[in-house]
Amino acid sequence: MFFPSEPFRIKVVEPIRRTTREEREKLIKEAGLNVFNVPAEAIYVDLLTDSGTSAMSDNQWAGLMLGDESYAGSKNYYHFEESVRDIFGFTHIIPTHQGRVAENLLFSTILEKGMIVPNNIHFDTTRANVEYNKGLALDLVIDEAYDPHIFHPFKGNMDLHKLEQTIQQHGVHRIPLVFITITNNSGGGQPVSLQNIRETRQLLDRHGIPLFFDACRFAENCYFIKEREEGYRDKSIKEIAREIFSYGDGCTMSAKKDGLVNIGGFIGMNNDELADKITTRLILIEGFPTYGGLAGRDLEAIARGLQEVLNEDYLHFRISQVRHLGQMLEDEGVPILKPVGGHAIYLNAKEFLPHISQRQFPGQALTVALYREAGIRAVEIGGLMFGHKDPHTGEDVWPELEMVRLAIPRRVYTTQHMVYVAESIAKLYKEREKIRGLRLVYQAPVLRHFTARLEEV
Ligand code: F0G
User: Fold this and answer.
1) Ligand 1: which residues within 6 Å by Cβ?
2) Could you tell me the pTM of the whole model?
């Protein structure tokens, strides 16, 4: 497989430490078999998330020194606004300190009890923000997304038939907007095609419903469009991004992903009245509209990061690095979700550990084993994250997919780190019968995976 070498060289290094198996055994036990509770210093390769974990460039670090920390009207805000508008085009751009605050502000402003928000698949914080505001979060992705073996170039696509049916069933008045998450994180980081976005827009235009994007990984989505969709090979990433957002009425964005920064986000929209309402709330919980919970220097880093992420050499390396890890694992027979998406490899825990039933959290069991055996931190995206009790029947409801996500931070780990990850997982796969199922001993009422405690069965 041709694998492009890193389009950057290393100027500053951050030492990381190898721990012993005994140390890790003790730490993971103390952590209640939950890798969120393990100190990051005791992790060798941290693939918990690609969010806020990017390495900034020399250009971004230089930008930090130009931070203007004025309370109102900082020059970095104007630069941030110009950079965001250049790509996203929306009339109003409201900074927030991260993506979920953008979601919180939006949904707490527009949702009334019983309203419905369709999405391809809601990310967990998006779902939680909809539900917390008494809305119903519906996932309407195409069926192929739930089959880890089918190759579909745009497995994140919205199912237009399901969307039309939802509108017919519930009525336009109950659907204040429709979301499309690019790329579709909870479905494996899978892209959405421009054709699907255009057709979603046409469908919603017939009903007068606004379209918003969850734009966290928009540049990675654009790269897939350029690579896979007819008619986009000769377009630049920026041109593709501009076309995507031209079909939207707004977006929420966690700049911690494709903003290439450690903190930050924003909401973009065209509706003046909505922008006024959100700004009022913003001042209450985040800050003045020209900083929105961020320092001036953070806004500068986002302004620069958003332009850097459009670089095709960078994106080619980025997508190829993830794909290369997927290929190494496949070569060893390890079951993964296919095709490989933009920011992560998803191990198929049901197939990795067929001897553990879903009610004994095979995804979490695999995550724990990966830390204990190799010092690698991944995250479960399965029964622990999404399992819940049906509010009507009280029965346990389990998600279709039981995954372990290896999210790759941007510009952080080298190819040799990826080889280490692949070899460690291949070894674990050979000894998979030794891994045991888990049971919950503590869970919080919402987003339980962050703080849950478990023990081995
Ligand atoms: N939407 C998507 C698709 C996300 O992946 C995330 C975060 C958010 C919204 C919320 O953004 O963290 O800045 O508040 N995803 C991270 C992850 C946490 O690990 O996938 P945030």
Assistant:
1) 49, 51, 98-100, 123, 125-126, 181, 185, 214, 216, 254, 256, 265, 407
2) 0.96
Q: Which of 282, 308, 334 corresponds to the end of one domain?
A: 308
Tell me which residue has its CA closest to atom 16 in ligand 1: 51
Each residue's pLDDT tens digit, 54-63: 999 999 999 9
List of residues 6+ apart from 52 with CB closer than 8 A: 98, 256, 261, 262, 263
What is the predicted pLDDT for the residue at 388? 86
Same domain, 162 and 242: yes
Which residue stretches of 287-341 are H helix? Answer: 296-308, 312-331
Mutation choice for ligand 1 from 49, 122, 139, 185, CB with most ligand atoms inside 8 A: 185
Number of domains in the chain: 2
Instruction: Using a pLDDT cut of 70, give the percent of the chain over it.
Output: 100
Reported confidence tier of residue 83, pLDDT bands at 50, 70, 90: very high
The answer to whether residues 94 and 292 touch, using CB atoms and an 8 Å cutoff, is: yes
Contact 368, 377 (CB under 8 A): no
Residue 200 · residue 163 · CB < 8 Å: yes
Distance 457 CA to ligand 1 centre (A): 31
Q: How far is the CA of 186 from the centre of ligand 1 (A)?
A: 10
**Mean per-residue pLDDT, 303-327:** 98
pLDDT of residue 392: 87
Residue-number span of the structural domain to which 370 is assigned: 21-50+312-456
Of 308, 337, 359, the domain-final residue: 308
Q: Report yes or no on 5 lying in a domain.
A: no
